[in-house]
Amino acid sequence: MDTVAAYRPKVDLSELDGRSEHEHEGKRLAPPDVLDNGGAPQQQPTVYLTETFYISSKKNTVFEVRLTDKGLCLKKQSNGSTKEQTIPLKDIIGCRCLRSKRRSRGSSSCTCASISSSGQLKVVEENSGEQDETDVSAYLYIYAYILKRNRRGGFRERTTITLRFRSFDRYEDNNREAQKWRAAIKHLIAGEPVQRLTYQPKETRKMLVILNPKSGSGKAREAFQQRVAPILAEAEIPYDLHITKKCNWAREFVRVRDVYLWRGILVVGGDGIFFEVLNGLFEREDWQTAIDELPIGIIPCGSGNGLAKTVSFLYEEPFETKPVLASALMVVKGRHSMLDVVRVETRSNIMFSFLSVGWGLISDIDIESERLRAIGGQRFTVWSVHRLISLRTYHGTVAYLPALVSQSNGGSLSAPGYANGGGGGIGTLKHSVSYNTTLNCRDCRGGQDGTGCGMGSCDACDTNFSDVLSLETGTNLDAFRPRIDSWYSATSRKSTYFSTVDSVYESDKASNDDDPTQTGGPNGAPFVQMYGPPSRLPALTAAIPDSWQCITGDFVMVHAAYQTHLSTDCYFAPQSRLNDGIIWLLIIRAGVSRSQLLSFLLGLSSGTHIPMQANEHIQMVPVTAFRIEPAGTTGHMTVDGENVECGPIQGEVFPSLAKVMVPK
Ligand SMILES: Nc1ncnc2c1ncn2[C@@H]1O[C@H](COP(=O)(O)OP(=O)(O)OP(=O)(O)O)[C@@H](O)[C@H]1O
């Protein structure tokens, strides 16, 4: 028989109760505000909650679990030895409380399961199914992606920590304890003060997800469904998913919709679809409000993925092995960075660019290798070799306004400030198809169709307990059977996730009302005006100002970049930062030898492409504005990797104009 009273937590949780005693491992602790005020010696972490948990299968093992401002500290005491590990707050993305449900035959509500004290299979889920009145425990699931460093940079491992609260003999009391922990964890990972007993998110709007099914090798839908949706669910970020139907669909969508219904825009695809969304926002009369209120995130499913790689590189997030996971974890943090945007003008167009403007070699490779799209990112390498053999040069004029780079901060500069235009109202479309991602139980992503849970003992799931760390309060006599010896060795699960993609996609296809391109200008043609900040440069047709540097001659390429990476493998502008106000202008003039070009191309992946010695043929210049005037119309010009007309083009940087989602 459980002697619950004997196993009541030995630690008073009164910092959240409003009571005064604070105890940890038999010692009195100062309340958090005293610790905050520097009263604690040696920078002790602030302890918000602490509790003792037992492992049913190991009689002599006890865990002291502490929630501090550093993270979740697990101190394992077993047979006289002590082992301690802290899961950093920055690695925790969410948590939720669940209650045990009895599993009935033929039930479609299978979610995640554990073995109870009586040895029966019990299913833990949030919303559906018959409640198991015999189990009064409350379960807290904590989802963490722990950073493991290795020689190649590192990777993140998924870990679920399950805390089972069972000190009290009523579920409501146990749940109250679990909810305290949940609230405290949620506040801490949101960077908010831990004050309340319950957690209400400040942001209740959904995320707008725009997915390009044609990006890269065409696997964006699967990537989102299998690797992004589960993470959004763990972080409890609801979303509306919209699948693009054709080129420019995303651009028009964000131009005409009431985008303020959403907390931000998450683009699933390549840099091209990010470009569409950014430019769609600048086509709104209220562009300034929209660009200010809506951070844009990217899940890299394209073939280049320059922006996603840049963000992960600058924030030192492991990217190479699992780029989709890395970026998904970045967007759930709810943080953003300001992003420089370059206003680009051609003879017939104005656009806003976040990545690069190119003319010549690299643009030729980018566009001409499109025919090899099926082989993914390899297409760039293959075509580089081809173009090196058949080298072309182009005649024209390149002019630029040099930037004043400050040495003290590694590259920021004093850039001109620009006045921004006004806001205003916008029209909305009538029809929207959207799905909420609310899950019955995050651990069973197949919960809706009964296909699996991922909690190891679920029949429908092929994962095992090595994925989780499960701890419980109260007695340690029961047969709750986690494999505790594999503490933090969690790996990605193979659970089948429920899909909203098909239904949304089908609904979109079925409804013309949902196609923003169906509305617009006369005769069905969309009438589009580009807003955004006005240019401060002379007109494209006007003479180049005397204060600019000007070169006329033959060029192999000219490429202006404002991200570190133009693609995953192209570390183009190592000194660049997201919001430094600098355009890095690379100029390669005719006369460069093939061996110099070869070492330039080979050095692109490591950022060693710019010769150490001054070179008359290859130079990289920090600028705030540039103009390229090709003499002819042959060759390719690109803006953010997309082909534009080959002709005069100029760009100017607007520092910190937009917002991009980042991990911290
Ligand atoms: N449903 C669609 N069908 C066809 N093309 C589309 C569709 N949706 C978007 N597009 C276009 O596909 C182009 C490429 O998309 P995206 O940038 O996502 O992938 P990518 O080109 O493979 O990646 P990257 O730009 O990183 O190289 C975009 O310019 C966009 O206009």
UniProtKB/TrEMBL annotation:
Residue ranges of every copy of the DAGKc domain listed in the record: 202-348
EC number of this enzyme: 2.7.1.91
Renumbered residue ranges of the record's region Disordered: 16-42, 507-526
Record's compositionally biased regions (Basic and acidic residues): 16-30
Enzyme class: transferase
Primary location: membrane
Cellular component annotations (GO), alphabetically ordered: cytoplasm; endomembrane system; membrane
Domain of life: Eukaryota
Gene Ontology biological process terms, A to Z: regulation of apoptotic process; sphingosine biosynthetic process
Keyword Transferase tagged: yes
GO MF, one example: sphingosine kinase activity
Keywords, in A-Z order: ATP-binding, Kinase, Membrane, Nucleotide-binding, Transferase
PANTHER family hit by this protein: LD11247P-RELATED, SPHINGOSINE KINASE
The protein's name in its UniProt record: sphingosine kinase
Organism, scientific name: Anopheles atroparvus (European mosquito)
